[in-house]
Design a protein that fits this description.
Layout (H helix, E strand, L loop, with lengths): L13 H4 L13 H14 L7 H8 L3 H13 L3 E3 L6 E3 L2 H6 L4 H20 L3 E7 L2 E8 L14 E2 L5 H8 L3 H10 L11 H14 L2 E4 L7 E8 L5 E9 L11 H15 L8
Antiparallel strand pairs: 1-2, 3-4, 3-8, 4-5, 6-7, 7-8
C-alpha cells in the first residue's frame, strides 16, 4: 500500500490523546509525518524501548510501513537501536534540540526590550522573577535610566512566601504546582513569616484583581507592584515587578497609578493571553 494512503490512526500514548482536539481538522493531514510523530510519542513513554513487533502492535499498522519509518528515524538519529539490534528507544537528539533554545533564555530575550521600554517611560526599575527550587530567581533586571531607583540584582534568589513575585507565582499556579511549590520551599535568610490564613487571603486578592500592589516587606519606602506573565494555560510562567519609589525633589516623574498601568501593559505584552489583569 502506498505510504501516502490515509489509514486509520493507531493507538497513541494515553498522555497525548487527551491533549489533542476532539475534532481535529483532517484537511491538512500528513500521514507519513503522523506515523513518525506517533512512534516518537510512543517511545517517549517506554523507559527501556520496544521491539519492532511491539511497536507494530501498539501502532496497529503494517510491519512494512513501521519498518520504513523506524529506519528513517534511526538514520536521522531521533531513534537508536540497542546493541543487539532488537529494541528501539529515543535518542537524546530531541533533548538536545530543545536545549538549543532554552525557554527561559527566549523569555528573557523577549522581555528585555519591553522591560527597558517600561523603565524609560516609568522612570523606575523592574525585574522578572521565575520559580526556582522552592523560591524565586530574579532572571532579568533593568535599572531606571534616571539613576534614582531601587533594584534587585539579576541572579538573586528571593523568598517565595514574603515577596510579591512569589505570591503572584503561587496565585497563578495550578493546584498540583501550588502544592509542590509549597512543599519545596525553604526559608531564605531574613524571610518574613506568613500564616496560612494570610497567604490564602493574599492569593485570593491577587486572583480577584489580577496583580499585587503593597508596601515592600523588605525595604521602607518601596511599593511593590507585580503582574503575572501568563502562559497559554493561564498559569504564571514568570512575574514582572516594579519596586516603586516616589521622588520628593523637584523632578516630576510618573505617579504610581501611571507606573502600574505601564507595568500591566508590559506584562500583557509578554503573556500568551491578553487577560493578565483587569
Amino acid at each position: 500500500m502506498s505510504d501516502t494512503t490515509p489509514k486509520p490512526r493507531g493507538r497513541r500514548p494515553k498522555s497525548t490523546e487527551s491533549a489533542e482536539p476532539a475534532a481535529a481538522d483532517e484537511r491538512y493531514r500528513a500521514p507519513a509525518l503522523d506515523k513518525g510523530l506517533d512512534i516518537l510519542e510512543l517511545l517517549a513513554t517506554q523507559a527501556h524501548g520496544l521491539t519492532r513487533a511491539e511497536i507494530v502492535k501498539e501502532m496497529e499498522r503494517s510491519p512494512n510501513e513501521i519498518y520504513r519509518m523506524l529506519e528513517r528515524l534511526v538514520a536521522r538519529q531521533y531513534v537508536m537501536r540497542n546493541p543487539s539490534g532488537d529494541r528501539y528507544a529515543l535518542s537524546l537528539k530531541l533533548f538536545a534540540l530543545a536545549h538549543m533554545h532554552p525557554p527561559l533564555s527566549r523569555l528573557i530575550n523577549q522581555a528585555l526590550p519591553i522591560m527597558d521600554d517600561f523603565a524609560r517611560k516609568a522612570e523606575q526599575s523592574c525585574h522578572m522573577g521565575v520559580y526556582d527550587r522552592g523560591n524565586v530567581l530574579i532572571s532579568a533586571q533593568i535599572n531606571s535610566p534616571r539613576g534614582w531607583s531601587f533594584s534587585v540584582q539579576r541572579g538573586a534568589r528571593v523568598g517565595l512566601l514574603d515577596t510579591a513575585s512569589g505570591h503572584l507565582l503561587l496565585a497563578y499556579a495550578d493546584a498540583g504546582s501550588y502544592q509542590r511549590m509549597l512543599a519545596e520551599h525553604t526559608p531564605l535568610d531574613g524571610e518574613v513569616p506568613i500564616t496560612e490564613e494570610k497567604l490564602a487571603l493574599t492569593i485570593a486578592e491577587i486572583r480577584q484583581q489580577g496583580y499585587l500592589e503593597r508596601d515592600s516587606a523588605q525595604s521602607f519606602g518601596v511599593v511593590d507592584i507585580s503582574f503575572p506573565i501568563l502562559g497559554p494555560d493561564h498559569t504564571a510562567i514568570a512575574t514582572l515587578t516594579c519596586p516603586y519609589i516616589r521622588r520628593i525633589d523637584r523632578h516630576i516623574g510618573p505617579e504610581l497609578p501611571e507606573v502600574r498601568e505601564l507595568l500591566r501593559e508590559a506584562a500583557q505584552a509578554l503573556s500568551f493571553t491578553q487577560s493578565a489583569g483587569k
